[in-house]
Write a structure and sequence with these properties.
There is one protein chain. The chain is an all-alpha fold and 732 residues long. It has a domain of 64 residues. The protein contains 41 helices and no strands. 38% of the residues are buried.
Amino acid sequence: MKRTTSTIISYLTTHSLSSSFSSAAKNFSTTPRPFPDYSPRNPSISDTDLVRRVTTTLKRRHLEPFRRVLKPYESRFKPSHLIWVLINLKNDYPLVLNLFNWAKSQSQQQFHPTLESLCIVVHLSVASNDIQTAKRLVFEFCAKPKIDVSKSFHLFTEMLIYTYKDWGSHPLVFDLYFQVLVENGFVLEAQKLFHKLLRYGVVVSVDSCNLFLSRLSCNFEGIKIAVKVFEEFPELGVCWNTVSCNIVLHCLCQLGKVREAHNLLVQMTDRGNFPDVVSYGVVVSGYCRIGELDKVLKLVDELKGKGLKPDEYIYNNIILLLCKNGEVVEAEQLLRGMRKWGVFPDNVVYTTVISGFCKLGNVSAACKLFDEMRRKKIVPDIVTYTSVIHGICKSGKMVEAREMFNEMLVKGLEPDEVTYTALIDGYCKAGEMKEAFSVHNQMVQKGLTPNVVTYTALADGLCKNGEIDVANELLHEMSRKGLQPNVYTYNTIVNGLCKIGNIEQTVKLMEEMDLAGFYPDTITYTTLMDAYCKMGEMAKAHELLRIMLNKRLQPTLVTFNVLMNGFCMSGMLEDGERLIEWMLEKGIMPNATTFNSLMKQYCIKNNMRATTEIYKAMHDRGVMPDSNTYNILIKGHCKARNMKEAWFLHKEMVEKGYSVTAATYDALIRGFYKRKKFVEARKLFEEMRKHGLVAEKDIYDIFVDVNYEEGNWEITLELCDEAIEKCLVKET
């Protein structure tokens, strides 16, 4: 009757194990009582005669089948006879075991071995070093259905103690019994056995105690008790080892007490338990979980200083943390450095970095790693394929995503709900709703159940296509299937309604969210705020911010950027500048997008002095410009004919690896051409064409005329064809 985890939790909450061990520590005596003498009932004269004949027959005919040898005695043989025969055969273990198995095989229940004979054979098995049989016998007893569990185990424990002195006297038998109890989930019975054995001066081995700790640490309540037991067991004579410390290190980290775990790691050497790679790995994992990379790196240096090598577990945890922090390039470098320590990246490590690159949108780097895995015969699993498919979908390359999905099927890997949902979401974001629903249907045909995320992706795609009513119907279908929409699902509909300008319905839906218990979050309010800003209703947008703050919802940087964009589009540039000051006062650092909105509007107004001041303020605050910043500034300076400044910014932009837009190239070319800087203009035009960017028709006209006047007929015709193909045909 094996205990389930829920049963163990019930036992732990009903009975305080830790308080019991505290009590045991107080009552622990250094003068243990002796084990009792074994004194079985004496046989009658007729019983003695039967026992003698059975014993003699077994010894003489031990090579023959037991069923045939003992057939004449079956009708008269009783459980009590078994014990008396065992006394005569105790020094011949194979005969003992065969006889016991014969008795067990008897069809009549009354002839089956008693608890006493079971304990005797368990003792003899341990004494004969047949641990496997001893453990099997105890396991069979534990697995039998029992009306009164506590009473049954009490009787077995008492009988095992009673038969100990004369039938083996090997303390390993109690260790074995303790282990079977723990493995089967009888934690309370194991605790009682521990107490009982203390009275006889027997302390369960540290390996068995470690098993006990491991079993306790399977659930949250048990983890707390395991830590207490670790603190109190030494008072009862248990000498912990490195494995014990590792289990408790894990428990402390599970409880969020990573610093306490670190302290224990430091104290281990003083306790005589030298930390191993597992010890460091557990604490490293704990610090990775709370994002303390500095502590992690110090621990790794300490580990290496002790001559230990970081293993895959440590590397994977650090790589996972780096990827979570967006430092995927550094994670890849660490992956490359693993080999120096004789550790070879496995499927898990590669998948972590691949997933990190996909989340950053760097799909090409992810695909390179994926190809590298296959070259090195590291087999990608369903998680690896799903990560790559999700990344490719995010980049909008749905043909490649489908090819990867098909490759996965060819490899014999069965996609799960996550894989299908990633593909569905990709099609929805690409506006290919027919394909999205086709994949959804395949998913259902495979027996997989679409979840809330799947339906939310489909609803999002429908909303972006303006099919709000269909999206609403889909959500009703989801509810009918027993799936509860969440705040993300509602936000999808809010976003769709805002995009088509149905603000009234949006406000109504937000009220419904409140009533349904899915309170609008920061994203909900930011989405509606963006709609108000685009309509020029800044007072309503500002009021939404006040409501958010009253509800203690923390506005994000996106929220403030939405407001900033609204102020700028409404020409309220001073309000925009005040918003930046307010953000800084509240400790919220603006990003490049925040400043870009202001700079763009000042450039449109041809106020380059104000634009430059904002750009300098941005630098002073430590905010790095992005590609949009450079494109805005370059176009602004070109419009103001500050070509020297524009050229400098273009050069800096290219050096930093940012992409120059076609509109920026057009502005630079026009600016240089007007200033009669033909060499610079031509160089930029060629650079633009090399990058596959299409210039405006008037730019093509400039260079068609220039090449015609220079007599470059071939280039002139080439540019004419290009202009017709890329400009005129496109316009029609």
